[in-house]
Design a protein that fits this description.
Oligomer: single chain
Radius of gyration: 29 Å
Shape: globular
Strand content: 5-15%
Structural class: alpha/beta
Strand order of the largest sheet: 2-1-3-4-7-8-12-11-10-9
CATH topology of one domain: Rossmann fold
Length: 739
């Protein structure tokens, strides 16, 4: 087995499957009646999703369905099937090739529960905003129901829920480390990230007769394996990044099924006596020459640390700490996080392997990003751009939010530790062409009901990363930085926004377009590098308010988020206000902040509260830190270690995380210092912190003191709380007589 080559087949260059003559469909069918109308006897692929089916390129299942349809396959959709009844998974019959399962555009747990683990009663991806239409841990539940309906049908899982659970991960809702979703769900293969390339190749290979178990070289895939294929060399993860003091790990020089023969024992003794890869002294000839039997294979070849950084990704893999190890040892969990984030560049990433009980999880390197022509092709499919007719007049809030918006790019090189975009979509920006974007705006104008001439957003994961890529392709393919903009903006990063500025101008000059609003998050530390872009944005594309996300005011928490300091914010604010004044407009910046982020202490939150009050901000909506799977900030929350730095003996930093409900409520209260309901908890905390000087009336205070009525209530409560001494009997109060 070897990972696929760096130059993949373009999506539009595959030979079409035979069913091309029956396609395309008005909508992908959701019922047997629709299949009959189309003249289909069966579906080649059936997609199961936790979202309502909206035939729009912002909805993942619509994209995958239309892309496979363009390859000549008959694709059906089971949208929000009843997970309590296997019969609802038989509606379209048995797929000829496989079931494709996703939780939807959002993780089902994040969709269903708040950051404080409270149940939500709404769901923006469901008709009429009704909550509870998808199960918790939807990927696992849907897969098991597919198995129950058709036990011999292969199951492919994907989407953000599966993508961020491909390895052992901390699960916030159960407060435990969970195994890969591959094990819990029993799926045959997992495709992570934007999976068009992997999905197309997988489908064609299965249609040609390959079994899903044979397809092990697909980039962007993960699967279970009992034995390591021949021809591979192992790199122990501690050779790439050496962790500090930890519990004694299993010997990395012998596979989990290695022989206990004298030769294997000799190798193990050499490793334990110091001739390890850490010194570069392992005798590879001894390891390669160790004899094994059919039932007890010889140990794998181990790459010394002196060679570990520069290895061929097609023949070497990284052995990560096992599930049992990361459960027991926070240092190893944080170490695994560092390895995972180092191996995300498609140009140099190596396969990752992690033992989880009787199986290894094998994760192939990320998919090669789509070229501009391929991304244009994906967005040019015949989407109807409206919900499936079965929903009638029902409102789907997520659709209403994006129906007049255009996605111009994918990916994010910011690497913010609390965000999942980089882990899921990658940090290499994939941009559409101007022509493709302008064509979509015209389709919105001509096809979307209710269009009034306003494009509600022209952006993506980040508004201003369009066509901002590394200046040198070779440097890009060898880089292992987790962020191109932190701690400083990389000198090799293109920061000229001319393409975005030009796109804005062309879009707003299209016939029938009255205004183009930019509503996606803005990376303002990049924007200030190009004043012309900021002027264009502020003058023509702000709808009165512009949302940006400093996230915090203090350097300590910002360093744990991998966000820029407040200097960039002030620089952008000055530009924003100057250009707004020049345009004769009253416009306002709306900053977003996170409460309870790892590394943020009570003092940090107090300082942020003071900053907000000093600058006249009254935050209505507060974003509490949500520990999503596989994020580096989640690792900080769980382990109290800092995976952004080498975990050796010099990294003894302990990261504070607000975990109790009381602590999280306090941090949120500091952001909403102006809410009278928060004043009692803030006064109590400030006095406990020795900052009672911030309680009082006036600009220099954070919260007002207690009113006369409140003081009277406090006095009464204080009296009630004092223990009353019982009166002693008279006899006991008499002095004893002297005899």
């Amino acid at each position: 087995m070897a990972t696929k080559q760096q130059t993949p087949t373009a999506l539009y260059d595959y030979p079409k499957y035979w069913a091309e003559c029956l396609l395309p469909t008005p909508f992908l069918p959701m019922s047997r009646e629709e299949m009959d109308q189309l003249g289909w006897d069966s579906c080649d692929v059936i997609l199961v999703t936790g979202d309502a089916y909206v035939d729009h390129p912002s909805f993942g299942m619509a994209v995958i369905g239309r892309v496979l349809e363009a390859q000549g396959y008959r694709v059906g959709i089971l949208s929000q099937p009843d997970w309590r009844d296997a019969e609802s998974f038989k509606v379209l019959g048995k797929p000829n090739l496989y079931f494709g399962v996703t939780a939807g555009n959002m993780d089902s747990m994040i969709n269903r529960y708040t950051a404080d683990r409270r149940l939500r009663h709404d769901d923006a991806y469901t008709a009429d905003d009704v909550g509870g239409k998808r199960p918790d841990r939807a990927v696992t539940v849907y897969t098991q129901k597919c198995r129950e309906a058709f036990s011999d049908s292969p199951v492919v899982v994907g989407g953000i829920e599966a993508s961020l659970r491909r390895l052992a991960h901390y699960d916030y809702w159960s407060e435990s480390v969970k195994r890969s979703v591959l094990i819990d769900s029993t799926a045959d293969i997992l495709l992570y990230g934007n999976a068009e390339r992997a999905m197309v190749e997988l489908t064609h290979r299965m249609a040609r007769g390959e079994t899903i178990r044979e397809i092990t070289d697909l980039r962007g895939s993960a699967f279970l394996c009992r034995t390591i294929p021949k021809g591979w060399s192992e790199i122990d993860s501690t050779q790439v990044d050496q962790p500090g003091p930890m519990s004694k790990p299993k010997n990395p020089y012998v596979t989990s099924k290695a022989s206990d023969s004298d030769d294997a024992k000799t190798i193990r003794m050499r490793a334990e006596k110091g001739t390890t890869c850490a010194t570069g002294q392992v005798n590879l000839e001894d390891i390669d020459g160790a004899e094994g039997t059919e039932s007890q294979p010889k140990p794998l070849a181990i790459i010394p640390d002196t060679q570990a950084i520069k290895t061929d990704p097609s023949t070497t893999f990284i052995r990560m700490p096992s599930f049992d190890q990361v459960v027991k040892d926070p240092v190893l969990y944080a170490h695994a996080d560092r390895i995972f984030h180092r191996e995300t560049n498609p140009g140099n990433a190596r396969p990752l392997v992690q033992n989880q009980g009787r199986n290894d999880i094998w994760v192939n390197p990320p998919p090669i990003p789509l070229e501009t022509e391929e991304l244009d092709w994906v967005f040019d499919q015949p989407y109807k751009r409206v919900p499936h007719p079965t929903y009638g007049e029902s409102k789907i809030p997520a659709y209403d939010m994006i129906r007049f918006s255009v996605n111009i790019m994918r990916g994010c090189f910011g690497g913010c530790t609390f965000c999942s975009i980089t882990e899921h979509e990658g940090r290499i920006i994939q941009s559409r062409s101007e022509e493709s974007i302008l064509n979509e705006v015209e389709k919105i104008r001509d096809m979307t009901p209710g269009f009034t001439g306003v494009i509600s957003d022209l952006g993506g994961p980040t508004a201003n990363m369009y066509r901002l890529n590394c200046k040198d392709k070779k440097i890009e393919e060898t880089c292992r930085r987790p962020s191109c903009v932190y701690p400083t903006i990389c000198v090799n990063l293109e920061t000229d926004h001319k393409h975005t500025t030009q796109l804005y101008r062309k879009t707003r000059n299209l016939p029938g377009v009255k205004k183009v609003v930019v509503a996606s998050g803005l990376r303002y530390d990049l924007a200030v590098r190009d004043p012309e872009y900021v002027k264009e944005l502020v003058t023509h594309h702000v709808g009165g308010y512009l949302k940006i996300a400093p996230e915090h005011s203090e350097d300590g928490p910002l360093s744990k988020m991998m966000k820029p300091g407040m200097g960039s914010y002030y620089e952008f604010k000055e530009m924003f206000e100057r250009f707004s004044k020049e345009a004769g407009k009253k416009q306002y910046l709306i900053p977003y902040f996170i409460s309870a982020h790892p590394g943020s202490t009570n003092e940090d939150m107090m300082s942020l509260g003071l900053w907000l009050k000093t600058n006249g901000f009254r935050v209505d909506q507060v974003q509490s830190f949500y520990p999503s799977p596989m994020a580096s900030a989640t690792t900080m929350y769980f382990t109290e270690k800092n995976p952004l730095k080498p975990l050796g003996k010099n990294n003894s930093e302990t990261i504070f995380s607000a975990k109790s409900q009381e602590q999280r409520t306090l941090h949120k209260a500091f952001l909403r210092y102006h809410d009278p309901e928060n004043w009692p908890i803030l006064r109590k905390a400030l006095r406990r912190m020795g900052r009672g000087d911030l309680i009082g009336s006036g600009d220099g205070f954070l919260v007002p003191g207690e009113s006369r009525r409140e003081k009277e209530v406090m006095r009464r409560d204080s009296k009630k709380a004092k223990p009353q001494l019982k009166a002693q009997p008279k006899s006991s109060r008499l002095k004893p007589r002297r005899r």
